[in-house]
């Protein structure tokens, strides 16, 4: 059975993507379409280019080059042949399609008063494949529990992009709603009412207001709603016990989180950050952290195809943030070797997967690589 997300592509591109091996399809993360440039995919911790025959190559010169007509047809399909109706999404630089798959867009911006009003001449697309990994939060949730409240602590989930934040957030919401606490001390605890503000329609992938991902039996979703406004709407109208939001960072997000806290609602949020030191250096996140907003922090990192997690308390997080050096934190690619923390003893084998490794469906498996250039070692670029 073909993946549903293939339907969003024009027929000529779909025919090539349809030839990908099952092992690649199962681990596919991104499909990048650029006008006049080779068709590229990312899977696991690798990338490769698709040839005109639908094969994989590490040499960009062998890749199938997408035409202007194909890009125009792709945009027409994404916007359902109405650019005007999708003006707001185009202004934000992405479109979320059925299934929660987000398509990033790049082209020429049209400005008004110094702000982006519209995006035209779209010539690049990045399709990010969304997948549910039911059960992937089982090892994480016990570290977030607050026995006195029979719920979770206020929690911030931190990582750079493409480390699995939204996947883990989605399953945490499901488990909290279903009461799958996965800890002996929580035996007898019931599931909690969960409210999700899904601004980008990625967490729930709602269709006509109904989530297409499993988010648990006690979960309500505000779809395509700005986070700050949505949190207040949920507090006023849906009496949530836990609010879930993705990618906080604006001052209005912080104000809404504070209001939720004062209303007695537990908060589970994510933020883009290189590490905890980054959290404590960014103005909005730093203010929340130093106020003691979060009682727990989940830090995700990725080495190759393995995603690792750590859960820290507030004091531990602040201490670690103070120990990090800027020189080892910024601009580190996903496929770079693991970075050794400055405070780690020299004899600690940091390359070994710790007990807190997550299975987000990214575990390494043999993946075919075809027609790689002679200069490349082991096929397409890792």
Whole-number tally of structural domains:
2
Average per-residue pLDDT, rounded, comes to 85
Looking at CATH, the homologous superfamily of the largest domain is P-loop containing nucleotide triphosphate hydrolases
- Topology, number of strands: 17
Order of helices and strands: HHEEEEHHEEEEEEHEEHEHEHHEEHE
Q: Which runs of at least 5 residues are low in confidence (pLDDT < 50)?
A: 325-329, 340-355, 361-367, 372-382
CATH fold-type name of the largest domain: Rossmann fold
What is the terminal separation in angstroms?
A: 28 Å
Rg calc: 21 Å
Main pleated-sheet profile = 8 strands, mixed
- For the record, the CATH class of the largest domain is Alpha Beta
Q: Which architecture of the largest domain would the CATH scheme give at its second level? A: 3-Layer(aba) Sandwich
Strand content: 25-35%
Shape: globular
Strand arrangement in the largest pleated sheet? 12-11-13-14-10-15-16-17
């Amino acid at each position: 059975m073909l993946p549903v997300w293939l339907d969003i592509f024009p027929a000529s591109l779909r025919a090539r993507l349809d030839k990908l091996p099952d092992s690649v399809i199962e681990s596919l993360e991104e499909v990048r379409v650029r006008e006049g440039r080779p068709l590229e995919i990312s899977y696991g911790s690798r990338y490769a280019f698709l040839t005109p025959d639908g094969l994989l190559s590490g040499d960009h010169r062998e890749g199938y080059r997408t035409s202007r007509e194909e890009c125009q047809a792709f945009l027409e399909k994404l916007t359902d042949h109405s650019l005007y109706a999708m003006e707001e999404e185009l202004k934000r630089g992405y479109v979320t399609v059925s299934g929660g798959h987000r398509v990033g867009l790049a082209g020429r911006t049209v400005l008004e008063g110094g702000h982006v009003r519209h995006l035209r001449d779209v010539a690049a697309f990045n399709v990010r494949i969304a997948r549910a990994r039911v059960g992937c939060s089982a090892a994480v949730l016990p570290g977030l529990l607050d026995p006195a409240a029979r719920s979770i602590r206020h929690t911030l989930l931190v990582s750079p992009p493409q480390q699995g934040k939204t996947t883990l957030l989605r399953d945490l919401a499901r488990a909290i709603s279903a009461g799958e606490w996965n800890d002996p001390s929580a035996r007898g605890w019931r599931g909690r009412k969960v409210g999700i503000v899904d601004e980008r329609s990625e967490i729930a992938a709602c269709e006509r207001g109904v989530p297409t991902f499993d988010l648990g039996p006690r979960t309500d979703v505000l779809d395509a709603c700005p986070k700050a406004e949505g949190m207040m709407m949920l507090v006023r109208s849906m009496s949530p016990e836990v609010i879930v939001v993705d990618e906080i960072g604006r001052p209005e997000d912080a104000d809404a989180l504070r209001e939720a806290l004062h209303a007695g609602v537990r908060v589970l949020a994510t933020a883009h950050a290189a590490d905890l030191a980054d959290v404590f250096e960014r103005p909005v996140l730093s203010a929340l952290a130093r106020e003691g907003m979060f009682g727990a922090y989940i830090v995700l990192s990725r080495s190759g195809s393995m995603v690792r997690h750590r859960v820290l308390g507030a004091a531990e997080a602040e201490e670690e943030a103070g120990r990090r050096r800027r020189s080892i934190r910024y601009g580190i690619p996903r496929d770079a070797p693991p970075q050794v923390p400055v405070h780690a003893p020299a004899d600690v084998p940091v390359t070994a997967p710790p007990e807190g490794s997550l299975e987000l469906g990214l575990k390494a498996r043999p993946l075919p690589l075809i027609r790689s250039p002679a200069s490349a070692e082991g096929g397409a670029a890792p």
